Amino acid sequence: MPGLVSVKTPPDAPPLNVSVPEIRPESSTRSEQPRTPTPKKPPSPSPSRSKPSPARSAKKPPPDSPNPNTLLSDPSLDNPDLGPFLLKLARDTIASGEGPIKALDYAIRASNSFERVAIEKGEEPSLDLVMSLHVLGAIYCSLGRFEEAVPVLERAIKVPDLSKGMDHALAGFSGYMQLGDTYSMLGQVDKSIECYEKGLQIQIESLGEIDPRVGETCRYLAEAHVQAMNFDKAEELCKKTLEIHRAHSEPASIEEAADRRLMALICEAKGDYESALEHLVLASMAMIANGQDNEVAAIDVSIGNIYMSLCRFDEAVFSYQKALTVFKSSKGDNHPSVASVFGRLADLYHRTGKLRESKSYCENALRIYAKPVPGTTAEEIAGGLTEISAIFESVDEPEEALKLLQKAMKLLEDKPGQQSTIAGIEARMGVMFYMVGRYEEARNSFESAVTKLRSSGERKSAFFGVVLNQMGLACVQLFKIDEACELFEEARGILENECGPCHQDTIGVYSNLAATYDAMGRVEDAIEILEHVLKLREEKLGIANPDFEDEKSRLAELLKEAGRARNKKAKSLENLIDPNSRRTKKESTKKWGFRI
Fold first, then answer.
1. CA angle (550, 554, 557) in 5-degree steps
2. Helix or strand or coil: residue 67?
3. What is this structure's pTM?
4. b/e per residue, 294-315, with b = 16+ CB within 10 A?
5. Where is the composition biased (Pro residues) (predicted)?
6. What is the C-alpha separation between 475 and 520, in angstroms, rounded?
7. How far is residue 557's CA from residue 534's CA, in Å, rounded to a whole number?
8. Closest CA to 344 of 323, 367, 330, 371
9. Other CB atoms closer than 10 Å to residue 256's CB: what's the count?
10. Residue 14 region by backbone torsions, left for phi larger than 0, else alpha for psi between -120 and 50, else beta
11. Mind listing the pLDDT tens digit for each residue in 114-129?
């Protein structure tokens, strides 16, 4: 959940990352240097945006970390020549790899010196201060101390005066993009997107709307919107990127191919599979023309995914096998890319009922993930384990699926910027726990997922609403009715806004909420909701749904009971969740809108 998605940036594309810019009059509004000392990897084809990993994940300052308060009292910082000297030392220390703590000391002293000199002269802070703050923020990020980087970068974006020319525009753009990356690593997607949008606006005002560097930033922002599941906005930005690249690049360029892969991803997410397939075929042709065999294979995997969504299974197998042949010959039999294709084939054969072949491919993929080749990232392994767990879940092996999800979550625990992904895994684990009757563990998993999603700015997404609904069901099984009611009510508000009142997830929450109100003795509220549901079915959804008669009978019973409300006895939760004792637990779960 998070994340969610991206495609590879072409290897020859101009760098998008910004951090410690050399602010010169002739420079453009995009720096050629990375935003952090560890360069950002190009986005991968996996369903989540790649994030840079810090040099280490220290959360607290080590004992020898410099104390800024002590540095403020250093009288030598009043020397106007000291700031530039310390800034150069900080940059040289980063480049030489001597150690981030030493560089941190230099950067803090440099920024303090620039501040003090400006105050003594009665002048506005200079762009040298901005540069030193960018360096300082980058060092904090490399240490995994993202919370400390935020106020530093927020200070940096307040200094530039955009009316003073290109230098200040570059400083402002770089600061917003670096701050956006830092918020992204903290999982605060909304704040991250807000910063990227401000950076893009500065760039457009400085360079115009059709500059190729504007196109790169539009694409970067589109990826962020995809991660936040804002697909309409992402599509708008991606179209703009395509227009800019068509204006400045040769036909079938690598840049255009990358844009089309992202556009295909957006179309697939919106259910427009034919358009997605068209973009992928064009992207594949461009990559073939540029001799990018591995990229062609990666696109073949995406094409296979589309064919599988369209139930064109023979064509999907052909695409997957083509990709598998290329990956094996270019990367080796034990590369995670090979395991990823094994996972897709396992899913395909499971869908077509060939369970023996499906199990074989699952085992082959797990064998590779168990002994990954050097250079394999934790995110790649976790993503693969999560995909395979879904297959075990669908063949009614929830315990095995749980083991894989627990391994995946353990791999991501200490990785920054993975809060949404971990929340998605925890939500899946909650479903597994619920299926095997471990309701307390299910509730705890859902609660942890909800907490992460709230902090990452996804509290208004449809996925968040579904997780709230699932947590509510776990609370019902634990007889925590008041808590379940609050969760269902919050889920209703979110799903009504995001999916509409006629969506099956929304109607499922209505049904759950009506049952909960009835259990609490709030008969009138339950009646009101059931009347609303029946009206939706009769006027918009049709009455062929098997739940219609059940809901109609329940409403009639509640109306009858409302006539003698003083003598009403609340129903037991068991009867509310499963009024027909002959129904299986799975059927009852489906009736109440629990989406597994």
1. 140
2. coil
3. 0.73
4. ebbbbbbbbbbbbbbeeebbee
5. 36-46
6. 14
7. 14
8. 323
9. 20
10. beta
11. 988 888 888 888 899 9
Residues 6+ apart with CB under 8 A from 192: 180, 181, 183, 184, 224
Residue written as tokens 């997780």?
Answer: 467
Give the pLDDT confidence score for residue 317 in this predicted structure. 96
Cβ-contact 303, 281 below 8 angstroms: yes
Query: Is the Cα dihedral 3, 6, 8, 13 positive or negative?
Result: negative
pLDDT level of residue 561 (50, 70, 90 thresholds): confident
Q: Quick one: which H or E segment has residue 242?
A: helix 231-248
Measure the CA angle with vertex 323, ends 337 and 283; round to 5°.
105
Length of the chain, please?
596
Band (pLDDT 50/70/90 cuts) for residue 51 is very low
As separate numbers, helices (DSSP H) first and strands (DSSP E) second, the chain gives 26, 0
Long-range pairs of 98-102 with CB within 8 A, sequence gap ≥ 24: 100/37, 100/55, 100/139, 100/142, 100/143, 101/62, 101/64, 101/65, 101/66
- Rounded CA-CA distance 121/589 in Å is 71
Q: How far from chain centre, in Å, is Cα 346?
A: 25
Summary mean pLDDT of the chain? 80
Torsion over CA: 578, 584, 589, 591 (sign): negative
Q: Which residues contact 564 (CB under 8 A, 6 or more apart)?
A: none
Structure tokens at 190: 């909304």
Give the per-residue pLDDT at 35: 35
Answer yes or no: are the C-beta atoms of 232 and 214 closer than 8 Å: no
What gap in Å lies between CA 301 and CA 297, rounded to an integer?
6
pLDDT in tens, 339-370: 999 999 999 999 999 999 999 999 999 999 99
CA dist., res. 501 & res. 88, Å (int): 59
Q: Tens digits of per-residue pLDDT, 248-260? A: 888 889 999 999 9
First to last CA, the chain: 15
Q: Which residues of 325-352 are buried (b: 16+ CB within 10 A; e: fewer)?
A: ebbbeeeeeebbbbbbbbbbbbbbbbeb
The DSSP annotation for 140-181 comes to HHHTT-HHHHHHHHHHHHHS--GGG-HHHHHHHHHHHHHHHH
Does the pLDDT of residue 590 top 60, yes or no?
no
C-alpha–C-alpha distance, residues 170 and 217, integer Å: 13
Q: Of all residues in the chain, what percent carry a pLDDT higher than 90?
A: 53
What is d(CA 231, CA 445) in angstroms, rounded to the nearest whole number?
Answer: 28
Show the tokens assigned to 55: 């040099």
7 vs 313, higher pLDDT: 313
| Residue 509, token pair as written in the block | 């929450």
Amino acid at 458: E
